[in-house]
Predict the 3D structure of the following.
Amino acid sequence: MAKKVVVEATINGEPTEFLCEPRQSLLESLRDVLELTGSKEGCLTGDCGACTVIVDGRPLCSCLMLGVEAQGKTIQTVEGLAQPDNLHVLQQKFLEHASLQCGICTPGFLMSAKALLDRNPRPNEGEIRYALAGNLCRCTGYDKIVRAVADAAQTLAAGQRRGAQLGSGPSASEATDKFLQGEEVK
């Protein structure tokens, strides 16, 4: 067994220190060591995008990055999107547009969309589709996802106050309960 390495990074805005083996992927480190299970294991080859996280402002497949490479980096996972009382606008729009089904691909789509909107707050449809091209969904058509991202961009571009940018809808648990009960989520 290889000697474990201490890695210090900022994850979801918090200084974090963790131990990982030199061969462990960032995905394994996030899920198995840090218990941040939002990023999903899909293909382990970087083809599906289910494990996408944002590293130093860029969307990356965490299955293709070693955990030790996270040293000194700033990483955002899907767990870092919502605030305790509010969904992020992207999460809210995914619910409103019914842009998810089984949920395996959803965290990757959300993080790819977040990275896009961080660098381009007013993308056109082609730019959205290009930014999401590394994410595969086997359940839905991509149109609802693209519409949700476009709607989120429009909401953010409207210059709403910061609280609304992070989501002025229900909490994540309230929204999930409503969604699962087939109620409209606003």
